[in-house]
Structure formats: C-alpha cells, structure tokens
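User: My instructor asked us to take a sequence, write out its structure as tokens, and then describe one feature of it. I'm not sure where to start. Here is the sequence I was given:
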Amino acid sequence: MNNGTGDNSDQLIVALIVSGQKDLFRLLVRRYERAVYGMGLGFFRNAEDASDFVQEVFIKVYRNLSRFEKRSRFSTWLYKIAYNTAVNGVNRRKEFRSLAEWETAAAGDDGSLPENELIRNAAREAVLESMRELPERYRACIDLFFFYDLSYREIEEITGFPVNTIKSHVFRAKKLLREKLADIGGE
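Assistant: Let's start with the prediction itself. The structure tokens for your sequence are:
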C-alpha cells in the first residue's frame, strides 16, 4: 500500500536508528504496521496469526536494519522481508488469501440504500470468489501490484519472480477474472 510518505524520510529514520536512536523504530512500525498486517491476514486468514506475523516481521526488520543498503525503497525491503516470512509460514501451514478479501470484508456501512448495498455486496462477493480461484502466485502478484501499489521491479525484488513472469501473472489474473466475472454476469 502506498502510504503517501516519501522514502527519503524512511531512509533518514533508518540512518538515525542505526546510529543509535533506537526509539525512532516506532515511527517505521506505525507507518507500515497496517500494510504488513494486511499481508499477514492475506496469508494466514486470521487476526491472531496476522498479529503474530506483524511482530515477527518487525523483529526481523529491526535486527537487520543495518543491512538495509538503500538500493531500493525501504518499503520494498520491508515488504520483501514480510513476503518471505509469510511464504515460509504459509508453506508450513495455510493458503494465501488476497488482501482484497480482507479490505472488502472490513468495509463498513456507508449509509447507502439497501438495494445498492445488496448489489455492491453481490458484486464484491463475485470478485472475491473469482480471486479465490486464481492460482496463489497470481493472487500474490495482483495484491502486491494493485493493493500495495508496487512496481513490477519491486514485486520482483520481493517475490523473486522475474519481471516478465510478474507481468504475465498480472495479465493472466486479470484475464481470468474478466472471464469468470463475465460468466457470472451472464448467469
């Protein structure tokens, strides 16, 4: 998720933490905690495991902060740690769930007409159901691209997939979603 903050401030905060101002780490946690939690929900499907995941990720980030080389954005480096931690955890346990599923499930009542809300909920469910049927690697690329607003290069750095593979996964996922949703719309 693009948090709207400049990466220069992240790099400055990291430099200050590494130089001894350890209490500034809380700023990075506050800035990225929600995005990491969302990724955790996507992978582990429950709040308790997602909270444990957030803690594990930020412990790893803190311990490795001096290794951040500023060749990429801090957020990319952090998401790579989070992604690898999640993939390793999911390989031991469960299946990936798209961030879109959690964000739409958490959406509250906006005061719209009941008929509009029913239509919106039906459309949301159709999209989520279609996303659940995508292969895990497609869902991961779609989430990182659309919901975390990351570039193909950043996704490559995070997942280890080559850029062309990521482009292909995003393209195929969008095509499969269009086909599945067209089928649903025709019913």
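For the description part of your assignment, you could build on this observation: The chain has nine helices and no strands. Try explaining in your own words what that tells you about the chain.
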